[in-house]
Amino acid sequence: MSVVYNFCAGPAMLPTQVMKKAQQEFINWQDTGCSVMELSHRSKDFMALADEAENNLRELMAIPQNYKVLFCHGGGRGQFSAVPLNLLPVGGKADYVVSGSWSKAAAKEAENFGEINVLNVVEEIDGKKVVKPSAQWDISKDSAYVHYCPNETVDGIEVFDIPDFGDIPLVADMSSTILSHQIDVSKFGVIYAGAQKNIGPSGLTIVIVREDLLGKARQETPCIMNYKTSADNDSMYNTPPTYAWYLAGLVFEWLKSVGGVSAIESINQRKAQLIYDYVDQSSFYKNSIANEFRSRMNVPFWLEDESLNDEFLRQAESQGLLALKGHRIVGGMRASIYNAMPLAGVEKLVAFMKDFEQGIK
Ligand SMILES: *Cc1c(COP(=O)(O)O)cnc(C)c1O
């Protein structure tokens, strides 16, 4: 089989080294004679693995001691409910900043639990989409928390500056940007991320929560969504997604081996820049997001002549460039280039885009 580059938005490709290691260890992990997925989550061996994965994530993200790291079920959307259940008091109010389709979905879910102030922060200036500066976000004074999505996976809009609302906790859906660039965790109350974009397989969700926010959950919060219950039980109140946890651990090890988040950040910058630069100098492709808000993880682009979309995708696939079709809401193309996508994959994509353009002209 020739080399394939998978640009899927999620579940996304994993590093080749990780997949090879998992394959080698699949039926006999560390001479136990068992697969990791066959071991008790309470066994000494698994607990050691679980601890190491958490410690590596803490190291990679420089997570301060006063934050808990939870390994949960339920994905990003599970957190759309878990966040208000844990942080929004009955009768309380929260602010939801909407910069694209995922933050909009999070706000809609939160409306089941209380009064939600929805702030639309994307506007179009000279034909380009921009995000209003956070100083202009009209946050309610009595807000329990402010929720936003730093990287909008579908829309390709990323907000790099971290907002600051003083004592009001900031909650971030980092499903598609966690570990892609360095951030100061201490600026957040809660960070959550479904694993299937930049961490591992689907079925695992990481929650990083500041300790003073634990213990405020509503009475009716399901136990498996209760942050304090999870924290008090080292994420093992119920059976955690053990195999996904193991794979996430391998990804964290891999990320450390390539130099950690700062090293991957500069590669990610280069990868994204290659595509945007090519799109910008071409009259054949376009992208309508202002430079400073362009996602480094999900790069959407459109062909000026949309009737060529199917042919573009067909030829791309025949060259091993997979899953470039844009999300149905926005159309066009989307190259998701998470940490695991090597520079060579992006170079091959850009070379193909050029060949395709020249072949048509
Ligand atoms: C993929 C994604 C989700 C949804 O995750 P699920 O695990 O499918 O629930 C939520 N938010 C963002 C930003 C995403 O990219």
UniProtKB/TrEMBL annotation:
Keyword Transferase: yes
Subunit structure: Homodimer.
EC number: 2.6.1.52
Leader peptide range in chain numbering: none
Binding-site list for L-glutamate: 42
Originating organism: Thalassotalea castellviae
GO molecular function list: O-phospho-L-serine:2-oxoglutarate aminotransferase activity
Name of the protein described by the UniProt record: Phosphoserine aminotransferase
Gene designation per UniProt: serC
